[in-house]
Amino acid sequence: MQEPLSVQTPVNAEGHFHVLLAEPDPGAREALSEVLSALGVEVHAAETGRRALDIARRVPLDAGIIDAAFADMTGLQLLAALRESARFPVMFVGGATASKEARMAAADAGAWSWLPRPFEMDVARMTVRVFAGMLKTQGNL
To answer: Between the N and C ends of the chain, which has fewer C-beta atoms within 10 Å?
Structure first.
């Protein structure tokens, strides 16, 4: 097991790093939650866009990993709604066959990164660690 990342600049009062994980697929949500927990972060998982927005209203979030599509809204709609009330880095999870336009739309909406699906856990773990490393470099983790 890898050593958890240390929180150098806590954003919230408890000194914990809180990540919103908005993922409709239960298996992917569980797997990504395990990866994030192993990095030493507090995971707040949501299966729908509405649930993710509810979490964002109640929890001081430091970063987010959101899927490109939910039953109740698109990932871009969720990202836009999150941007109205909070500014934190977001990594998008989407299909490997997503068009260049879809990836650019996510970037234009404020997504920092794109995790293509389907993914192998080693690739997901590495991508999430790189994302966390970017946050750490920025002073957010």
So the answer is: N
Q: What is the reported pTM?
A: 0.79
The number of residues in the chain equals: 141
DSSP 3-state of 27: helix
Closest CA to 73 of 25, 19, 30, 24: 24
Three-state secondary structure call for residue 9:
coil
Question: Could you tell me the domains of the chain?
Answer: 18-114+132-137 (3.40.50.2300)
- Helix H or strand E encompassing 136: helix 121-137
- Among candidates 97, 96, 79, which has minimal Cα distance to 20? 79
User: By the 8 A CB rule, do 55 and 82 touch?
Assistant: no
Dist. CA 116–CA 100, nearest whole Å = 12
